[in-house]
Write a structure and sequence with these properties.
Layout (H helix, E strand, L loop, with lengths): L4 H18 L3 H11 L5 H26 L4 H21 L9 H17 L15 H18 L4 H11 L5 H25 L5 H49 L1
Length: about 250
């Protein structure tokens, strides 16, 4: 089997860089894997993608946690609920076709992009301290996002960041750091799921993980150095690409 590392290695590096700031690394890695291994089963490639991604997510989470105060009392219940939601979402696939979600996702992403673009100050600074009931609101938020991630998936990182900014008043830096906690947990869950449903390309995934980790180091550095304004612009760019991608697949 010929492996085109001139495609996979840069894709994993760039995916790690983008994912560290605003999510959306799967937009880069999955097409690269599909083009390199067109005859390989989809669960195998998705599992390999998650294996690569979790290295970068873990590295960026570590750096964010050392530089940013993550509100653990909010984030940990949201993470636990997201894991439950992801399992329920995966089970929901048997009852409802994934494609039914695509038009709704485009509408939601358009709303997120327009709202973020018009609200210039959104996520530039913290708007409030934690409030009573935030733990339960966070758990509900995590459950909904986990359900979506398990059932469909595209844009999960972007929805997480937007939710932490809009609902919980975080700035984009803290929201991105908080999103990494949930991303890491759901990635770990996904690896376990895909590994139990078919083989993962472990060697390829681990080599890509090294490239992804290197990219994540750069992406996290840029996010922490340039702050909320940089992440806001990158966030809008990734959401725009997600919208275009979904529209192309619908049409």
């Amino acid at each position: 089997m010929t492996i085109d590392w001139f495609i996979l290695a840069p894709a994993a590096f760039f995916a790690g860089m983008v994912d560290a700031a605003v999510g959306g690394g799967g937009l880069i890695q999955i097409p690269a894997l599909l083009s390199t291994f067109p005859q390989t089963a989809i669960p195998t490639l998705f599992g390999t993608n998650k294996l690569s991604s979790i290295a970068g997510t873990g590295a960026s989470l570590w750096r964010y946690a050392r530089a940013v105060r993550i509100p653990w009392r909010l984030v940990l219940p949201a993470t636990a609920a997201a894991l439950v939601g992801a399992w329920l979402g995966a089970a929901l696939v048997a009852w409802m076709p994934r494609e039914a979600m695509r038009p709704l996702v485009v509408i939601m992403m358009l709303a997120v992009a327009i709202y973020t673009f018009l609200r210039k100050n959104l996520g530039q600074e913290e708007t409030h301290e934690p409030r009573p009931g935030d733990t339960w609101r966070g758990a509900l938020f995590g459950l909904v996002i986990g359900l979506y991630d398990g059932f469909f998936g595209p844009g999960t990182g972007s929805f997480l960041i937007f939710g932490f900014v809009r609902v919980f008043g975080m700035d984009f830096v803290r929201a991105s750091a908080s999103a990494k906690v949930i991303n890491f947990a759901t990635n770990l869950s996904a690896i376990a799921f895909f590994a139990s449903h078919g083989p993962i390309l472990w060697t390829i995934g681990l080599i890509m993980a090294v490239c992804n980790l290197a990219g994540a180091q750069l992406g996290t550095h840029l996010a922490l150095k340039h702050g909320a304004g940089f992440i806001r612009q990158a966030f809008l760019g990734v959401v725009a690409i997600l919208i275009v991608k979904q529209l192309i697949e619908i049409l």
